[in-house]
Amino acid sequence: MSLVVENITKYYGTQKAIDGVSFTAEPNSIIGLIGPNGAGKTTTMKILTCYMPSDEGRASIHGLDIETDEQEIKRITGYLPEHNPLYGNMYVKEFLLFVSRIHRIPHPHQHISSIIEKVGLGIEQHKKISELSKGYKQRVGIAQAIIHDPKILILDEPISGLDPNQLVEIRNLIRELKEDKTIIFSSHILQEVESICDRVVILNKGRVITNESLLSLQEDEGEEFILNLKLTSPVDKTLLSDINGVSMVKQNDSTSYSIRCNKDEYTRELIFDTIVQSGSKIILMEFKQDSLESIFKSVTQSDS
Fold this sequence. Notes:
- It is a single chain.
- By secondary structure, the chain is an alpha/beta fold.
- It has two domains: 211 residues, Rossmann fold (3-Layer(aba) Sandwich); 67 residues, Alpha-L RNA-binding motif (Alpha-Beta Plaits, 2-Layer Sandwich).
């Protein structure tokens, strides 16, 4: 395992910020660390990057202990905090050279050129950081996090505040970085977590309440799914809506329907029987699992 977290606990005074947090991460995977505000995501990330000690438990990164091997862990870990700490009066290339020298990287100019190309900062490298858009500032933040080629990359809200185009660009960049790194990724934009992450760890009130692959989570926790149907002829939408276990029916065109329903087989049989009794037949059928956003609401509310 690239990362092993075992029963990490942190107190702020008498308040438990995180309580027995445990999870693992495999090489070349992206773990989504999500939860409501105050759930303990940022505290967990600060502990894993050795910016804050834990009070109980242990964690290791590539076999190195976060308490006894702090300096070595910082050499193999890249960190982008939620509030990206950039020097606005420095030029992009100047800042990255500064960071590379902190990491004692040989031939820094040559190395910086490859990093700038990798994160797409070519046309912005001679601008002051204060002049950049939010999207490009995030690219600079990611560049400083990967400048020393870390094995683990920890990104706290890297897509917060981005416009749709910037969001797509940063999403694609994170996917590319997965090729040779393990990434811990935190975001409130659950659609992006769903599209990027292999595994999801949900925190609530400082505790892990879910730790599964995205597919397993959708299969285990989702109470409903979407049934997309293409029929030979129209069916009265009201007949489908009135079926016990159906919560939503959307008619996409004259013969295409999206039906949100319970997962039980009996509900599906009622839907199929209604279609046949209406004189229609199913040409195409597709199941779509519940969204991460829906599952997140369900598991956090049931844990309250």
